[in-house]
Specification:
By secondary structure, the chain is mainly alpha-helical. The protein folds into two domains: about 60 residues; about 210 residues, no CATH class. Helices cover about 70% and strands about 0% of the residues. It contains eleven helices and no strands. Helix 4 packs parallel to helix 11. The radius of gyration is 21 Å and the shape is globular. It starts with a helix and ends with a helix.
């Protein structure tokens, strides 16, 4: 279908409505608070149930699945300009061991998943795409944004189902990490073996409901330009969008120069943000 500006507006409106609904549910439903599900996940579950793949109550366009690939480029483009510069020697001593451990786990998930697929699954289902094993790590390590980018890269190479499978992997990964992870936390907090919690119920109310009481609220806005010239928020949105746009065009250029290789826009947006 041809996507008009009003179609995009309707998609954005219903996404916003679902996000607000997810925030309210998180604030009011005690069992949801116990699961610690973020409002965005709740909104996604509602969207799946009420959207075209559910009962069809929400008229999302057929482009709804392309938005995560765009938004992850925006996020990665914003990271370099929003992060304070630190000296490598100072941070290496503090997080070096943790970084090494996480990199080992990450490489193991990418590599083992791919080898498992190539050596076993592809021998059982001969028509399975050779990159199937990468979808596990794409979802479990990167989340929906990375899964969207990796799935989009597969789609450009002719494997259209890769995007849906990657997003499914990401959804399962997020739910498992929250539900199973919290089960471990609750179990060991009751045994008194956690460092920061004596009991899980001792968490502050704002962490359970997501609503910060008035006496604990802090300002999150810093004006860098005068609003008489341009609104500061609009200016920063423009800067981040320019960076993400640069990543997109670099990705398209790479696709033109090397048709058999697809570099996700989000990784190139990160480099543009660094520049």
């Amino acid at each position: 279908m041809n996507l008009s500006a009003w179609d995009l507006f309707v998609d954005l409106g219903f996404i916003s409505l679902l996000l607000v609904a997810g925030t309210i549910i998180r604030a009011k439903a005690r069992w949801v608070q116990n699961l610690f599900l973020p409002a965005s996940i709740i909104a996604g579950i509602l969207g799946l149930a009420l959207g075209p793949n559910g009962i069809g109550l929400i008229p999302f366009t057929d482009q709804i699945g392309t938005y995560p690939g765009i938004l992850i480029a925006v996020i990665f483009g914003a990271i370099p300009i929003a992060t304070q510069s630190v000296k490598f020697k100072e941070i290496a001593g503090r997080v070096g061991s943790m970084w090494s451990y996480s990199q080992m786990i990450m490489l193991a998930m990418w590599g083992v998943g791919l080898l498992f697929s190539l050596l076993l699954l592809n021998n059982v289902w001969g028509d399975l795409n050779l990159g199937f094993g990468l979808l596990l790590a794409a979802g479990f390590i990167g989340g929906h944004g990375t899964a969207a980018a990796v799935g989009d890269a597969f789609a450009k190479q002719g494997w259209e189902e890769g995007l849906s499978l990657a997003m499914t992997s990401a959804t399962i990964g997020v739910i498992c990490s929250i539900v199973v992870g919290l089960a471990f936390i609750k179990y060991y907090s009751k045994k008194g073996e956690t460092n920061y919690l004596a009991r899980f119920e001792d968490l502050p109310r704002e962490l359970r409901t997501g609503l910060i009481p008035p006496e604990k609220r802090t300002s999150t806005k810093m004006d860098t330009v005068s609003s008489i010239a341009v609104d500061p928020l609009v200016l920063h949105v423009a800067l981040v969008t320019i960076i993400a746009l640069g990543g997109y065009y670099l990705s398209e250029l790479g696709q033109t120069l090397l048709p058999s290789v697809t570099i996700p826009a989000f990784s190139l947006a990160f480099l543009v943000g660094l520049a």
